Amino acid sequence: KATEPTLAVDRLAVAGAGFDLQKRLLTVPEISLTGGKVNLTRRADGSLDIQDWFVPAASEAGPPKNGARQVEARPGESATSKTEALVPWTVNLAKFNLDQIGIHVVDQTFAQPLALEVGNIGVQFKADASFGVGQPQAKLDNGSMRLDKISLASAGKPVFDLAGIALEGIQARDILSRR
To answer: What are the distances in angstroms from CA 118 to CA 37, 44, 146, 157?
Structure first.
């Protein structure tokens, strides 16, 4: 829907976040997104309209692989004696809650464009992640997802309607592993 924004959120709340630089720890008791809509278009060439938001990376050079940060040595000390201990960054999110978010997606790669409408998405989970040393790790627990008022249309004609679907007890481990 060209006149609607790509992303609209009624309410974003982050409750009681804490940050410990020395421990390299970010703790977030709750992130909540309530109300809003996502409007996406997959163009005929297969690209998504939101790809226009991002500038391509200038180079593929990334951060150091081992996560250690080098600190300038004082006179008389070797630089290697000041390499920080290999402590990963850790993020603990006790609760993520997304509710009352609608989605409208148009796929123009078909001869007759398809339109998917989801009236309400509800998602909840707990997540933990660590990165910066070795392989990044992430896990998701206590997850649930609910999709309500799902419809698919082609050329403006209904193809499929579903009142809703729900999943409970979602867990995921090694989300970031590269195999």
So the answer is: 10, 22, 10, 16
